[in-house]
């Protein structure tokens, strides 16, 4: 009698489940019947040309756009029924962030960390500023940062708070080559820490480096 070897690894439980998603602006359909899942510690990239609906899907996931049909579950619970928990569990960077003009880069991160329950965020803030290459600019006001530095600060605001799901819209925007390399490494670390990542991107190298799965969207006629 032969002994059965270990079977194939069981598919990981999805953390985020998007099923049959449809979205329309006025009467114009933008997303038709989209289904995908993101397990813990995995990354899914939404790819496709301008206007394909990537941002719209991300907006539905974070609850800032209302699907016309379909279900979006986070850990098995509909996103809309756990609105408060979404705020706790989901870190998102979808738009250019509006910064407070009179708070420094470090103060922004400090404020957000404290708002999310970290009473002693000094070390975390320093580490993140170092990570995103803004240590020397820690005491600068947002208005004095370059557009790439503001983008780095915006990314840091998503990483300074607790999260189980990270939602990013074109995180590579305005980053230089070394910034994109850092981003790829950082997103890998996020996955290793068990965070699920869903991101839209126009950068094939970033997608290749980070995504376990890609969802290809095409503009609807
Ligand atoms: N608020 C809105 N009102 C009406 N139409 C909208 C709105 N937002 C987006 N659209 C349209 O929906 C479609 C999908 O837009 P979306 O921003 O989701 O695409 P995208 O794939 O993220 O594009 P890009 O790569 O340019 O960021 C586009 O045709 C866009 O014009």
From TrEMBL:
Residues annotated as domain ABC transporter: 16-220
Any one GO MF annotation of this record: ATP binding
PROSITE patterns, sorted: ABC_TRANSPORTER_1, ABC_TRANSPORTER_2
InterPro entries for the chain: AAA+_ATPase (IPR003593), ABC_transporter-like_ATP-bd (IPR003439), ABC_transporter-like_CS (IPR017871), P-loop_NTPase (IPR027417)
Top-level taxon of origin: Bacteria
Pfam families: ABC_tran (PF00005)
Keywords associated with the record: ATP-binding, Nucleotide-binding, Transport
SMART domains given in the database record: AAA
Gene3D superfamilies, sorted: P-loop containing nucleotide triphosphate hydrolases (3.40.50.300)
PANTHER family: ABC TRANSPORTER, ATP-BINDING PROTEIN
Family: Belongs to the ABC transporter superfamily.
Name this protein carries in UniProt: Heme exporter protein CcmA
Species: Kribbella flavida (strain DSM 17836 / JCM 10339 / NBRC 14399)
